[in-house]
Amino acid sequence: MNFCCETTENYNSDLNYNYIVEQLGKAPILSTCNTRELARVMPRISIKRVDSNELLYSAGSPAENTFFIIEGSVKLQSGKRKLKEINNGFIGEEAAIGNPKYIADAKTEKNTEVLVIPREVLTKLLHQKPDLKNEFYSSLLDHLNNTTYEIGQDLSGSPGNQQSDGDLFKTAGWIMAIIVPALVLIGGSSIGLDWVSRLFTAIFSSVIVMWVFRLSAEFVPSILAVLALVFLGIAPVSVVLSGFTSGSFFMALSVFGLAVVLTTSGITYRFVLTALKYVPNSRLGYALSLFLTGFLLTPVFPSANGRVSITAPLLTDMVDVLSYKPRGKAATQMAAAAFAGVSLFSGAFISSKAINFVVFGLLPIQVRDQFNWGYWAFASAIFIVVMFALYLLISALMYRSDEAPKLSKAQLNAQLKLLGPVSNREWAALIGILLFIVGIVTSSVHKIETPWIGLVVLYVFLALGTLSKKEFQREINWPFLIYLGGLIGLVKTMSYIGLDQWIGTRLMWMGNYMRENFLIFVLLLAVSIALVRIIIPNNATVVIFSTVFIPIAQVSGVNPWVIGFIILTLSDGWFMPYQCTYFVQFLEMTKKQNIYDKKSILVFNAYSNLARLAAVYLSIPYWRLLGIL
Fold first, then answer.
1. Which value, to the nearest 10 degrees, does the dihedral of the CA atoms of residues 232, 236, 237, 238 take?
2. What are the residue boundaries of the structural domains of the chain, listed by start?
3. Which of 522, 626, 623, 548 is nearest to 362 (CA)?
4. Residue 182 — very low, low, confident or very high, per pLDDT cuts 50/70/90?
5. SS3 at position 68
6. Do the Cβ atoms of 323 and 407 come closer than 8 Å?
7. Does residue 125 or residue 72 have the better pLDDT?
8. Those residues with Cβ within 8 angstroms of residue 110's Cβ, 6 or more apart along the chain or in another chain
9. In Å, how far are 96, 97, 145 from 138, measured between CA atoms?
10. Helical H runs in 266-303?
11. Rounded to an integer, what distance in angstroms lies between the CA atom of residue 392 and that of residue 377?
12. 83 φ, ψ to 5°?
């Protein structure tokens, strides 16, 4: 093989991908990895050709890469003492085992060609295959010839033990978690709350403070609420624990199981690779593809959690394939697109959320006859167009940067070649998701509710071994399910003690504005919903406001569907993660990859809340044109 007279590094060209795939198959430690795992890391691996008598790395320098010798020879030495000469296999294992710096010098004995595997790639691979770390460690010890070295020591020093701002924030949170409930118990009677309602509100306020200040994992306050409600006898145990027997709980369990099969089988990764071959090669094109995927799922999946379970794996795979910088603007733009696609249009289709059918049931029969699936979507058309335009505007303004996707058709073809033919497990995952979708679409025929359709698919996966016992135990997000079950129990308890009716009666005064000045009414409604959503979940908020204002609309000459649509749309808005269960799910499903900036997503969501209100106002002339307002 010919080499240049200087040390050079050749980044992956179209001709190199197949060569890299071939060499990865020869790497002994990686022989236990399946083709899907190798396909994920292949785009980040490059070929490096080094002349004779050149340093590949030196002792004490940052351990950023591990190298696999394809051809040539490398001498490891400590000072002037030669440790070992290596002609084949891995060197620089310090990067693989997490050591911050290289321990020895690596110098080529002759012209040498190596694969360069970055530390972040190995970290991702070791997360999937933790046993590989021991093999890299054994390889490193063998190279050192049993010489004693301190491995794993951080030579850069450790930060001082100064109290961080996060500690002060949590301290303030714990103080608030004690003071706020006490104030509710003392002052609640002055606003007409009875003793039981004050006890419930005190417990709920403490839980909310714990969520807002992130004093613990989200499910821990849910357990606290359940225990307090049961011990104080505020509601029967069957009511407090009703969330754990609800359809929503089993729906979430089913979609988590479905998501595990989709991701571990590799079918989502194959889908992403195939789809990217036809998507325009631009940041906007890739973001729009994720956004439109979520949008097209919205009228099909009557659960935002279900839509998140499909788009979240697609997001992580796409960011991985495109080699976007973790937590950079490009990766965060993709995350915003994925979440916006599944969440911004839930009110625009009657079939997008179960609560939409509750509102539909509250409408007068003649209005229900008019607003079938098609006319509901038609009446939402301007809202959909405006929200799409505002999404594009917000995304363009927030995520402007020069970062470009690192992707070529040759890379995609090489990765697909490495994956090989579709496996039996991938076919099972594909058939499962198709059965789930068909079951949902045909629910009006067989009358089986969505949660039980999902549970049937989950059972089939478990019975056939497509979802193993180990995966069911480790990969299902049980903390989120505990959080969800406790939250539903809180809502059921609130209804049991009549607190929702108490809130509803204090909103009646807004009916005058509905009759006299509809524009002001919409603004008051938006503010009221935003305030109520601080303490009450989305679905309960919809029920409270709909039961109050839909009857008022009937006697005020306002089409009740308009009121129901506005309530559905505005109640979907949120500011803190605890207010939105499917955003918490989105965080949980993507947190291991740590690919986007969470604070930026929260800012994006705040702008989206304003966009919802703007889209509602811009829809008013259209509704008047249709004669429904």
1. -160
2. 26-144, 170-211, 267-422+498-626
3. 548
4. very high
5. strand
6. yes
7. 72
8. 52, 72, 73
9. 12, 10, 11
10. 267-276, 283-297
11. 21
12. -95, -50
Class of domain 26-144: mainly beta
Is 105:77 a contact under the CB 8 Å cutoff? yes
What does the DSSP assignment read for 502-571? Answer: HHHHTTGGGHHHHHH-HHHHHHHHHHHHHHHTTTS-HHHHHHHHHHHHHHHHHHHT--HHHHHHHHHHHH
CA–CA dist 538, 523 (Å, integer)? 18
- In three-state secondary structure terms, 234 is coil
Q: Quick one: tokens of 439?
A: 């079951």
Query: b or e along 324-353 (b: 16 or more beta carbons within 10 Å of the residue's beta carbon)?
Result: beeebbbbbbbbbbbbbbbbbbbbbbbbbb
- The model's pTM: 0.71
Are 47 and 18 in contact by the 8 Å Cβ rule? The answer is: no
With CA atoms as reference, report the closest residue to 508 among 495, 492, 525, 496.
525
pLDDT beyond 70 at 57:
yes
Asked whether the beta carbons of 230 and 237 are under 8 A apart, the reply is: yes
Question: What gap in Å lies between CA 51 and CA 210, rounded to an integer?
Answer: 60
User: Whose CA is closest to 262, among 199, 184, 329, 314?
Assistant: 314
In this prediction, residue 5 has a pLDDT band, given cuts at 50, 70 and 90, of: very low
Residue with tokens 């539903």, as numbered in its chain: 488
Q: CB of 461 within 8 A of CB of 196?
A: no
The four Cα atoms 415, 416, 418, 424 give a dihedral, to 10 degrees, of 140
- Measured from the Cβ of residue 34, the count of other Cβ atoms closer than 10 Å reads 13
Task: Transcribe 473-504 into DSSP letters.
Answer: HHTS-HHHHHHHHHHHHHHHHHHHTTHHHHHH
User: Percent helix, strand, coil in the chain (nearest 5)?
Assistant: 65, 5, 30
- Where would I find the H helices in 90-214? 94-97, 119-128, 132-143, 165-187, 195-212
Q: What is the DSSP string of 76-117?
A: EEETTEEEEEESSEEE-THHHHT-SB-SSEEEESS-EEEEEE
For 258-286, how does the pLDDT look when each residue is reduced to its tens digit (9 = 90+)? 878 887 888 877 888 888 888 888 899 99
What does the radius of gyration of the chain's CA atoms come to, in whole angstroms? 29
Token pair belonging to 30: 């990686």
Q: Quick one: how many helices (H) and strands (E) in the chain?
A: 31, 9
Assign 148 a pLDDT band (cuts: 50, 70, 90).
Answer: very low
Q: Which amino acid is at 420?
A: G
Q: Is the dihedral of CA 460, 461, 463, 464 positive or negative?
A: positive
Chain centroid to CA 305: 10
Task: Assess contact for 239 and 604: CB atoms under 8 A.
Answer: no
C-alpha span between 103 and 94 (Å, rounded): 8
Element (H, E) at 10: strand 8-10
Output the six-digit token pair for 463: 């019975």
